[in-house]
Amino acid sequence: MSGVFLGTSDFAGVVLEILAASDQRPELVVTLPDQRRGRGRKEQASPVALKAEELGVPVLKSGNVNDEEDRARILAAGGEWASICAFGQLVKEPLLSELPMLNVHPSLLPRWRGAAPIERAIMAGDPETGVCVMRLVAGLDSGPVALREETAIGPDEDFGSVSARLAEIGGRLLVEGLAAARRDEITWQQQGEDGLTYAEKITGEDRQVDPARTARQVHDQIRGLTPHIGAWLPLDGDERLGIRGTTVLDSGPAEGEFADQEGWPVLGCGEGALRLDRVQPPGKKEMDGDAWLRGHGLP
Hints:
This protein is an alpha/beta fold. The chain is 29% helix and 26% strand. It folds into 2 domains: 4-198, Formyl transferase, N-terminal domain (Rossmann fold), CATH 3.40.50; 204-296, Roll (Methionyl-tRNA Fmet Formyltransferase, Chain A, domain 2). It has helices at residues 10-20, 47-55, 68-76, 95-98, 117-123, 159-182, 204-207, 215-224, 289-296, and strands at residues 4-7, 28-31, 35-37, 42-44, 59-61, 82-85, 101-105, 113-114, 128-135, 145-152, 198-199, 231-234, 240-249, 258-261, 264-268, 273-280, 287-288. Helix 1 (10-20) packs parallel to helix 2, helix 1 (10-20) crosses helix 6 and helix 5 packs antiparallel against helix 8 (215-224). The longest helix is centred in the middle third of the chain and has 24 residues, at 159-182.
């Protein structure tokens, strides 16, 4: 059946691929315009644009879907329902009422509404997360939920593995939700406000490791930002050591101090310690912590 999918991120690209392989294949994909990325600051298409081109689905790169021209093209694509996932723009009236949309959101709503739900869930040490498919409304991720599925977060899982699993779940639930909506057989459940939290966008401050926190808290921070953003520890001389993987230890050196433990660098925290399993020194590629220690020595 014809329809429209709105999305931009890598996560949304996985959802689109699953959707396109189903009988809910979209007629049109809407994404953000090309943006300058990387060290060369060259213009690059969004992950969803690249995936749509690979799949042979027409693409509209829209700077504002609420503009009359882009809105008209979206409505002309047809379909009684559209779908949206990690799009990056606010859909406003009248489009919001003219074309009902199912929104794929990777959290157990109302926990972690907002921009960075997967990162925030991991950084908070949540033992579980999930995906909700809800009706898009004017409020931030506050619409009624049609489908939800939970999944455990392993104590050492990072963003990469959790996000990949949630994207697969999200694609499957979206196919199911669109089919039910088009049969007029969907059941809505209001979210309520109990357990409401907001997943604010990740800032530079969120990336800096503070050894005064517990080893477990720092470990959760690092895995929530790995591999796509990255946490870092300030060193002498204004250098920053990227930390990509750690192991929580019951004890170690004093808070903020380093020790060599069986050839591996260990950082003391406010409670417990962290063995630095994977690091990224300034200006260098990621490497094992023991290799860094042999070449660098203790800070």
